Each structure stands twice: as structure tokens, then as C-alpha cells.
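Q: What would this chain look like folded?
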Amino acid sequence: MAKKDTGKDAEKDANPHATRQDDTDGTDDAPPETPAERRRRRAQFLRELHEAKALRDRVQPRRARAARMRQAMRMRTFRW
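A: My prediction, written as C-alpha cells:
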């Protein structure tokens, strides 16, 4: 007769997408991030975001053109 799992291990087995953060107590032992590291990470994120938007525009040209037209209309109707 098979033994039924209970507790935290059973929850992990039931959810294959569970993260390992369930095991941590919430404290972070890593040193604080410096402003230069944050700027570097942010720049990398913005580069990847721009690349993803450019790819989406190439893959869906009709939607990209409609978005450009909406933006142009917003700019024409903007008042100071």
C-alpha cells in the first residue's frame, strides 16, 4: 500500500511550476544593489523591451500601423 504524501513536499509535487522561494524565510543575504548596477539592469531591460516591440511591429504590420496612426492623432489633438 502506497504512503500518501502530506505537507510541503506534497504541495511541491502537486504543482510542478512552484518556485523555490517557498523555502526561504523572506530575508535577503545579498548585498544591496548599487545605483550603477540598477542602471545597467534597467538599460538591459529597456533594450530588450525595444527589441521585443520592434519584433512585434515586424510580425504584425497592420496593428503597428494602426498604433502609429492613433499616436499621430493624439499628437495632433494635444493642446498645451
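The two ends are 77 Å apart (CA to CA).
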